[in-house]
Structures are given as structure tokens and as C-alpha cells.
Fold this protein.
Amino acid sequence: VSLDDPDTMDLAHRDPSALVERPGAVTLDEIQREPNLLPAVKRAIDRDRSAGRFLLTGSANLLLIRRVSESLAGRASYLTLWPMTRREQAGLGTCGRWDELLSTGEEKWVDLLAEGSEEADWRSLARRGGFPTPAIEMENDRQRSIWFEGYIRTYLERDLRELSSVSSLPDFRRLMKAAAFRIGSLINQTELGRDIGMPQPTVHRYLNLLETSYLLVRLPAYSVNRTKRLIKAPKLYWGDTGIALYLADEATPEGPHLENVVLHDLLAWRDARTPRADIFYWRTTIGEEVDLVVETEGRLLPIEIKATTRPRLRDTTHIRSFRSEYGDAARAGLLLHTGTITEWLTADVLAVPWWKIV
């Protein structure tokens, strides 16, 4: 049953138990529209602990919504479904080959990546994004633009109001547009507010709302000191590149959008696996930076992303600095590019086309 249906929504208000206390498995869609259903679900679970009785789906993170008082702690597992990955769109039902890489010795990476991938157009993928309708069913950018506009209007005029009160929807949309121009950049809320004429506390609240609804991704900085990870400025990315490009009115994706494509695939991989992995970026005070760092089971995989068909030796500099800093904890690095050649540029940095992994 979907809470988009007015009769279902009315019943959820009047008699939530009637929705949840029915025989068999129950799926409640758009659950964030009526958080008061959650206590009824909790009571039903406590009476019958059979696994898999309820599937609760929605377009926001329940744990971050202030008016949700029931988290179903100890009674629920959470899975984030990001927009579809490239391989899901191709019908393969998976994300990138990260598990294969991490479970294989570096000396075997070239042989591993020699199999099973066809060259792909990353710009087309970035423009499509990962929402099923524009990614799979629509044939051109004009059709997708109409869909993206409808999605954003629905988000602003209905979904956002259910998450929190927003005094000015035009201001909120202006913030979304400004954020869409800053993909891959460090988030400076004061500077962002100054650029669009908005107080920093409002910018902070609006960014939190975008993150709660999975439109925005804040990528933390890597540090051995876990407290510093929380203090350092995060980098900004989008949950869907198609939405970001539409908001920015950009027809041609650039290098940061390729970073976003790779990050999106990693997020889908991370949130569907155990044991958990973490994803960061790395930056030093002198400006050395590695686009992505994957931390899992005590090892670090540095990844640099270049929108070039001809990666050069100089493109490996920051990965090698990272490996020098973290020693045995760091695996050989990956330099993802848009060409066709897989080769070791140095003894510890493998240049590989992005589509062979993502």
C-alpha cells in the first residue's frame, strides 16, 4: 500500500493498526509521509517477531527526520537504494567490480580487468542519471529535462514540506542550483550563503534537508584520527548527476561529474555490502588531493579520476604521496580515465578505463 493514495493516507491517520495488522507480508511505500505509522509497526512486530513481515520504503532517511520518534531500533535493518548504477541500467543487477578488485592481489588486476566490460560513454551516463524513468525509458535530453523539472517541483512542493517547513521555496531552489555548480568542491557554507544572499544557518539547514532526502552527498575527509574526519570540511556531490546537470543548466558534463559517477557507484556498492566500507577524499594542507579513498577491513584503496583519454605520469603524483604517507595500509592506486588502455604508469599506480570497473 502507498501513502501517496489519499484513502490510504486517511486510514493511516485514523486507524494505523488497520494498515499493519493484516495477514501476510506488507509493503508500506512513502512511509516518511506518515511517521505515526511506525509505532503501530513496532507493536505488530513485538507481537510477532517473524522476519520479513514489513517492507518500509520511502524517499527520505527516517533516522534524520526530526518528527520521527520511533526508529524501530532492534527491529529493522536499513538499506539505502541509490539511483541505478550503470550496470543495473544494463540489466546486470550489480554495481562496479569493487569486491573483485579488493579481493584480488594487485599483480592480478590487469588480467582481472581484461574481461567482461564494453566501452561506455560517461557523459551520456551522467546526463541520464540513475532514476529509472529518465535513465531507461527516455530517449533524449529534452524528454529527460521535462521529467527532471517535474521531479524537482514535486520535491519542492510536496516532499520537502513533509520533511520540514521551508519559508521560501524560490530560495531553496536557488541553493539547489548553487550546489549543482559546486560538484567536487569543498563545502564552505558561509561563502555559499554570501554568493546567494542567504544566512549561513539557513544554508546549513537546507543542505541538511537535501542530504536527508538523498539528493546531496557530503563526502568526508580521510584522516587516521577519526575525530578529525568529523571536523574537516566535506566535499559536495549529488545523489544523481542527471538532476545536478539539469539544475545547473549544463549540457556538457565535466570532470567533476565523472567523479560523481564513480562515487555514486561506490555508494551503491558500499551500502549493499557487509562488512561495511567507508569512502572519503584525501587532501593535505599543501594542496595534495586524492579524489576517493575506500577504507575496508583496515586497508585503503586510493582512486584518482581524470576525464582524459591519455593519463600521464604526473597524474600519479598525489596517489603516490598518499601511499607514502600511509605505508602498508595503502594498496596500489587506481587512476580511472576515459580512454581504452590499462597499464601500470608506475609500479604502484594502475591506469584503467573507468568503464572496466564502474
In short: The longest strand covers residues 289-296. The chain has a mean pLDDT of 92. The beta strands are 26-29, 54-57, 216-219, 235-238, 278-283, 289-296, 299-305, 333-337, 343-346, 349-353. The chain has 16 helices and ten strands.
